[in-house]
Amino acid sequence: MFAISDLHVAYGQSEVLHGLNVSVSPNEIVAVIGRNGMGKTTLMKSLMGIVPTRRGSVKMEGAELSKLKSYERVSHGLAYVPQGRMIFSGMTVRENIETGLASSGERNVPDDIYELFPVLLEMKGRRGGNLSGGQQQQLAIARALATKPKVLLLDEPTEGIQPSIIREMARTLKRIRDTRGLSIIVSEQVLSFALDVADRVLVIENGEIVRDDARDSVDEAEIAKHLSV
After folding, report:
1. Which domains does the chain have, with CATH numbers?
2. 56-93 pLDDT, tens per residue?
3. Beta carbons of 88 and 96 less than 8 angstroms apart
């Protein structure tokens, strides 16, 4: 479904990602975990075309994405929920979700999005800036789903969200995967969330993937060492 090959990304002369190789299967949830500054957000931004790739390949279903603009990647089926959510605070919940409909050709928010996030239906007339952090995260995911993606990228979705909402988010992401048949790549620092949601766990350290384990074979103590400062 999604293949990253020999991905090198740099800011000026400073290379941040050093030849990453990652493959994601259909309907698979992959968690990329690591400490701050290890390259998680740079990876997400480069996959979305926000940060240019120095060298390497990003393919979805065999189609090369690495030279495409961000909006062109969306039309190929890639969706992105950035760190900090970045919803439009002055627009209503419904209007926020509608911004994602342009690429899908639909005019109205599909009912199944509100079924996934009932609180957004209750608050569809409320301004996004008046929602709690957890509700804003749901709104950002709903906006991304409105583009009808094949692959969903989530950058640190648990940041600033209370533990009970984090557990609910893990269940929701697995439901999205199961009902919509898409693949999900999530970057994260919270190991418990990654283990809750992922089929596979990758550890990124200093711009390189240093572990790639199926969820069932994860050694939590070993991975935790990579997350400690």
Report:
1. 2-87+151-227 (3.40.50.300)
2. 999 999 999 999 999 999 999 999 999 877 889 999 99
3. yes
3-state SS of 173-211 is HHHHHHHHCCEEEEEECCHHHHHHHCCEEEEEECCEEEE
SS3 at position 144: helix
Burial of 195: CB neighbours in 10 Å, binned 0-12, 13-18, 19+: middle
Residue 152 burial by CB count (10 A; 0-12/13-18/19+): exposed, middle or buried?
buried
| Cα 156 to the center of its chain, rounded Å | 8
Q: What angle do CA 225, 154, 184 make, to 5 degrees?
A: 90
pTM, whole model, 2 decimals? Answer: 0.92
d(CA 175, CA 33): 21
**3-state class (DSSP) for residue 95:** helix
